[in-house]
Amino acid sequence: MKFEIIIAKKSEVLDPEARAILGSLHSLGYEAVSDCLISRRFVLDVNCQSQEEGMKLIHEIGQKVLANPVSETFEVRHVL
Amino acid sequence: MSSKLGLVRFPGSNCDKDTERALSELFNVTVEWIDFRETRLPNGLCGLVLPGGFSFGDALRAGALAARTKIIHDVINKAKSGLPVLGVCNGFQILCETELLPGVLLRNKDARFVCRHVDLCYQNQTIRMPIAHGEGRYFADEDTVKKLQDNGEVYLSYTQNPNGSVADIAGLKVGNIMGMMPHPERAYREDGAKILKDFLGSCQ
Questions:
Q1: DSSP secondary structure letters along B123-152
Q2: Which tens digits make up the pLDDT trace of B6-33?
Q3: Which member of A19, A64, A71 has the closest CB to residue B139?
Q4: Which end of chain A has less neighbouring CB within 10 Å, N or C?
Q5: Residue B123 Cα distances to B27, B160, B177, B203, angstroms
Q6: Rounded to the nearest 10 degrees, what angle do helices B16-27 and B192-201 cross at?
Q7: ipTM of the complex
Q8: DSSP B30
């Protein structure tokens, strides 16, 4: 069963990469773009009996490994 | 100091030999190398160093994967029992990822790797040490930073912030755990010696 976990910087944490990309877009003339947020998406294929069991496992992996709670948030979704 | 100082090497550690040289030349300290594949620290260590460089390609976040190895689990246990630990650069990033030190090290504010000498505030003096990092922007929430400041746990701060670190924080000393972005082992014949001496002073 596949699950995706999307990890993003907390809104109060500066993301210099996103800022650089936004600056580049503006310099290319895309002034209509007012903000840029970057997140990382991981797709994990899990051996599990139920969607609930898989979601629980991925949440645990998000909390313990993939995201740093000081600067990041994450959300988990089942991938069809 | 009667016993040995441990030094953990990860794939990508590259300040390990510099650290050994600094410690042996200045203080005649013997280092015991510890491979990241070990599951337990050797007995009888008086202190432990996590050296600078990289670890596991710094995949995910700098120090994140190293912080989740079995050897680091044992480091956490021993550190909580009082073993003095020094983390330099990637070692500092690992210590934050383990939560032995609060906060996290993020990509530098201007997204550039910075490699030069900087002036640092250390015990009301200005000292000079080199930095070399792309992810050295210390970040923690306001309450955590205030607590660090109130408790006198900000061990080093930048006089001219090179990376956007909150409150100019360059290094922390929380109980028996020291972590810093500047490299004392690369300046061990100069001001770096003061830092290494401080750390060894806690290793008995």
A1: TTEEEEEEEEESS-EEE--HHHHHHHHHTT
A2: 999 999 999 999 999 999 999 999 999 9
A3: A71
A4: C
A5: 22, 17, 17, 20
A6: 80
A7: 0.89
A8: P
pLDDT tens, residue by residue, B23-82: 999 999 999 999 999 999 999 999 999 999 999 999 999 999 999 999 999 999 999 999
CA distance B164 to B181: 13
Chain B's closest residue to A12, CA to CA, is B141
The residue whose two tokens read 């970040």 is B139
Helix or strand (DSSP H, E) at A45: strand A39-45
Token pair 């645990």 is at which residue?
Answer: A60
CA proximity to B84, closest of B127, B41, B126: B41
Of chain A, the percentage scoring pLDDT greater than 90 comes to: 99
Nearest CA in chain B to A71: B104
Give CA B153 to chain center in angstroms. 14
Task: Say whether A71 and B164 touch across the interface (CB within 8 A).
Answer: no
Structure tokens at B163: 């990376």
Looking at the annotation, which residues of B are catalytic?
89, 183, 185
Q: Which of B104, B110, B164 sits opposite A68 (nearest CB)?
A: B104
What's the CA gap between A43 and A80, in Å, rounded? 11
Q: What is the pLDDT along chain A (80 residues), one digit of tens a residue?
A: 999 999 999 999 999 999 999 999 999 999 999 999 999 999 999 999 999 999 999 999 999 999 999 999 999 999 98
Cα gap B68→B56, rounded to integer Å: 11
Taking the Cβ of residue B165 and every Cβ of chain A, the question of whether any pair is shorter than 8 Å is answered with no
